[in-house]
Amino acid sequence: MSQYITSDTPFEATPFTAALDWLEQSRILPSDVLWVMPRIETVSDFRRQWARHHQGQSTLGPWVQTADRLSQPNAMGPWLALQADLVGVLRELPRLAGGSSRAQLWALAQEYLELALRQVLVQKRNTSALAHYSENNAFAAEEAQVVATLAQTYATELTALLPARAVPEHREPKQVVWFDDGETIPGLWLELFYPDAPVQVFSLPAIEGPKPWHDLCTRRFAQQPSRVVLQVAPDETTQAQQAAHQILDWLRHEPGTEIAVAVLDRLAARRLVGLLAQFGVLVDDRTGWRLSTSSVAGWFDRLLQQYLEHGQITCIAQPFTGVLLEQLEPWAFGKEGNSHTLCQWASAFSDLFAKYKLDLDLQQDEAGRQLLTVLGLMRQVPAQTRFDAREFVAAWQSWAESQRFRPQDIESPVRMVPLLSTRMQQFKRVLVLGCAQSHFQESPPGLLPPAVAQELGFAGPRLARIQKVSALHELLLNSGQITLLHSAQVAGKPEVLLPELTWLDIVLRDTARHDMQQMDSHWSSRWHRQLPNHEVQVREQAEPPLELAALPAGSSKPESLRVTALDDWVACRLRFGLKHALPWPAQYDDSAMRYEQLRGIFVHKVLEKTAQHMANAGDATNQLEFWKQALLNQAQAVWGKLDLTDRATVYPFLKFFEQIVPRVAGKLMERKIQGWQFKGAEQTVEHPLMLQPSGAVVTLKGRVDRLDVRGQELGISDIKFTKPSVLKKRLQEPLSQPQLPAYQAMLNSPTAQLDFLGLHKDEVDWVTFPPLTDEWRQHGFNSWGEVLLGELAHELDRFFSGSAVWQANPGDACEWCAVRGVCRPESLPEFADETLGEEGDDE
Fold this sequence. Notes:
It contains 32 helices and 22 strands. It is of the alpha/beta class. The chain is globular and about 85 Å long. The two termini are 38 Å apart. InterPro entries: P-loop_NTPase, PDDEXK-like_dom_sf, PDDEXK_AddAB-type. Residues 563-824 form the PD-(D/E)XK endonuclease-like domain.
């Protein structure tokens, strides 16, 4: 795909231009320079700029390396051998592999090896963060020890798997030129392989704050205006339709024009590909689909499942036509359940394909060639670890999930690329798909906390966001025609536009026409475009939403509220009012307890009994085996005291709990090592909440799951059967989880540490509330509990006094609330054209 320079005098000098000018002045021969660039896509663009700058009189030197390849293994055969060996070791370590499926075990081995590969790069640097993490996290230290041992044991093999030093014509580079995108890996790689070579660094712009966007407004929209369009779609489907409409319009006016689609929203991208296909427009997808999503991978999966279910393969369809092979003999590899090496498994399937000439068909397809490649690599694996049929399937699926492919037979003017791959390039026409704030957020990678991950060379959430924002800024500054597409909601949930684009829109607004703009749109007319809607929509007459008002004379006010009711208060005021703020008669439930209730009672009791037992265990509290055994003993004891009906109900969870005991034990031991001492569990607390300004009192009542002390510190904990990573996302808005802040205020302990203990099949961890923000402190609050009860006291008083009514809070609660059919939240503007349940919800 060609890139077009939009102007002979671009708005800013690019790092490429600065590097070429510096090279001319330095008088260094181009053939003596090693170039280090951010991503592979920038190399071809740099080659063209090099040729244009030198007018064909000089060729680019032989050394070019890209940062995105420097932490990846350069040879997959030896990498697969290490992974197979490691899986054989991990499956014998119940502390690390207990409860993991075969596929999860291969993924875990992959993650450990990737971390070890990075540790080889940082072995000469200070690793204080990793050491500190290991010392203060007894259970996770085992994982850290595995990584450290791998890095030490396989140092030679891992070093050989790093992208090797390039020495064309047996010469060392006399100069390194590094286009720095903020990644630390290139610097570590250069330290390892070229410690004596001088390095000239050209830093790519790191855009932060509103000022660059104010400057962009002046340069792009005032000094040299060119077409930039912002389109805000009401939902994801309309977003994909608008994207397809824009691409088709560009192609209609200039057939064959090359279009870059910078992708941030993968869901919208999949829909866009399907829409364009309906009009005969194919897409050259460079975003890197996983091999597991290809039709060839699905075909091979079906063959393997047939073998697993029947112990043999009796029918094989041609991978691309679906025609069944004739004269196929039933095929089996040994007896079902027998174990073989990866080499033996791969050889058997390779021979099967060759016998029926399926390998010739697979060679014609990019994904098919990758399947044959992985079987060829497995045949060369020297590891003698033996795997049964299901473990071989897990090995294949892990590989297919980790590898990416791009169909080579699609030639299209529409090229789809990740946003980061557009850096340092200039395009004639660009469509940016997805501009929500959530698209620019990143999570810390892997097993390790952010500080350790950053020390091992990962970008980190903040840097990753800066890189994406900077890439978007460069596109807006230097490209030709640009269309930005944003969906106002995803899966029925509001999506906030990237704040930097909001700043730009504010600067672009015409203050003289402010009042008129408010009538039409709150977006600036200088870049926002609303597509005409040619469809005639017929809607039913809207019914007004249900409103809840308090009864007169204060008769709605309850004497007490349970702390658990605050979850309803946060989720939806209407639901809270109907359930907790009206004088309903007392309700009695004589039915048997549900599984969820028994599960909670069981875990609370087991952890309480374990804490009491280990409080007097002396030195045993520093040994993981004692913690594990104590948990198992207490689980059996608690289960044995239940009646037969409750035992049968909670038995599935008992088996699940036994699987996660190693992880739970590690986290409890970690808490003990940090100095926390168990104080109590299931402690009943009450607190008179004085409503403001009336002075009326409502008593808050609750039961704290767990209390710990450390010197003068108090720790308040709540057990959640939720993945810790999900809890961390929820705590981005701490007041959305009101129970722990409420207990903090009720116990009059503003400095208390608030923690969730998340229990999930894939993850067990403590999740700590973030500290109170400076914004709240400036308003005189000292804790999240004070903020919560202050807001609660004021809003309850307004409702019970009759000065406020409650409606639905459109949002997540409406997906599961039984009142929705009565309150009709869809009649509210926020619920217009909602599509609850659409794909895209991560939880």
